[in-house]
Specification:
By secondary structure, the protein is an alpha+beta fold. The chain contains 15 helices and seven strands. The strands form two sheets. It has a four-stranded antiparallel beta sheet.
């Protein structure tokens, strides 16, 4: 029995679905073009006035290679807490607060001090030894990109939310000191991007479900990655999760609306019809006929005073997109629009799987944390990495 529609028997056809139609899940073909239409840089310029203020920064190839590389070294920094504790112990309390620049210098110096130098091979010539030492001590460095990011952060009010073409690093929020995606500088952003499986998917697997060939060229196959990768920085707002909704459009018709956060909010029942009317009106006035595809999903946020709706994102009408409180069968076969769907009770919310439950915390993090502070955990993690490297 459905936890969302307890009154419905398991074999009964969902409301709005033609029971005489065979329930075959036939999705609209996911083509390269349809996927690219949902990329942020493709839709944001057209819908800028409806969305949150953002900046789009094309990523250089050397930075993309850095994201692909193993390890979580942050450009310009290394050593984590080892360097911080060295620097702070040397200051002997002269300053209660060490500056960010001092921290970076200390981190860089620690990398040079602790970098391994293997002299055991007599067969290597001096040039090879120099090259190996340089490779071992070098750190990623992207001054132009960092400057562009810092300027964008300042323009957006000093706090931003990062994402790539499609995905945000929301599965990596555990690694941030705030447990959110709120970023104040380039280092915050780089750490989240390097730690996210969702970002890695954008880099190498975004097109793997596409049914056509890249650019419609016979023999081209499925594209591995976008021709252009963008870093998107969005102005940070403390959004109320209860007021986020996902909308499903099939054949140019809005067929379903679901709350996004899988938590039961009792107050939503009292304003359910108002919310639905506002979202339907927003779709008909602002979205319908302006997005290039006939089948897609889009996310919206309604302000707490319910006076404004923000367009958050577009996603393909495809199985890879979370249908939330719907079943894809319902959305594919319905002949009419479903009412706004909300969690029916706290019990229903408890049955929902926690997002990213299987990829949120690496096992090493769980094993090492043991109730430690961030600094204690970072030092333990650093020591473990150094031990594994020797």
């Amino acid at each position: 029995m459905s936890i969302y529609r307890p009154e419905q028997e398991p074999d009964a056809a969902p409301s709005g679905v033609d029971a005489t139609v065979a329930p075959a899940l036939v999705f609209p073909p996911l083509t390269h073009q349809r996927l690219e239409n949902c990329a942020f840089a493709a839709w944001y310029p057209k819908f800028r006035s409806l969305s949150i203020k953002s900046r789009i920064i094309p990523l250089p190839e050397d930075f993309i290679a850095y994201l692909h590389a193993d390890g979580v070294f942050i450009p310009g920094q290394s050593g984590i807490t080892m360097a911080l504790s060295d620097s702070e112990s040397e200051s002997d309390g002269e300053d209660d607060a060490i500056s960010d620049m001092d921290r970076i210098k200390a981190l860089q110096e620690a990398t040079s001090r602790h970098a391994p130098n293997d002299d055991s091979s007599d067969d290597d010539d001096d040039n090879n030894e120099d090259e190996e030492t340089e490779e071992e001590t070098s750190l990623p460095y992207f001054p132009s990109l960092e400057k562009e990011i810092e300027q964008a952060i300042e323009e957006l009010g000093s706090e931003v939310f990062p994402k790539l073409n499609w995905s945000s690093p929301r599965d990596a929020s555990w690694i941030a000191t705030t447990n959110t995606l709120k970023c104040h500088n380039a280092a915050d952003i780089f750490l989240l991007l390097k730690s996210s499986d969702f970002v890695a998917h954008d880099l190498a697997h975004a097109y793997e479900d596409c049914s056509d060939e890249a650019g419609g060229v016979v023999g081209a196959g499925v594209r591995v990655r976008p021709e252009r990768l963008d870093l998107v920085l969005r102005k940070w707002f403390d959004l109320a999760p209860s007021m986020e909704f996902r909308c499903f459009v099939r054949d140019h018709r809005l067929v379903g609306i679901s709350q996004r956060d899988m938590t039961y909010y009792e107050f939503l029942k009292g304003i359910q019809q108002e919310l639905e009317d506002k979202i339907v009106g927003f779709f008909e006035d602002k979205i319908h006929g302006h997005f290039p595809d006939s089948d897609y999903t889009f996310d919206v946020y309604i302000t707490r005073n319910r006076e404004r709706i923000y367009l958050i994102d577009f996603n393909p009408f495809a199985q890879k997109t979370d249908a939330l409180l719907f079943e894809w069968e319902e959305l594919l076969l319905t002949q009419e629009r479903f009412p706004l769907r909300l969690l029916a009770s706290e019990a229903a919310g408890q049955h929902m799987q926690q997002p990213f439950a299987f990829n949120r915390y690496p096992s090493d993090v769980t094993d090492l944390s043991n109730g430690q502070t961030v600094a204690e955990f970072a030092e333990a993690f650093y020591k473990k990495v150094q031990t594994a490297a020797t």
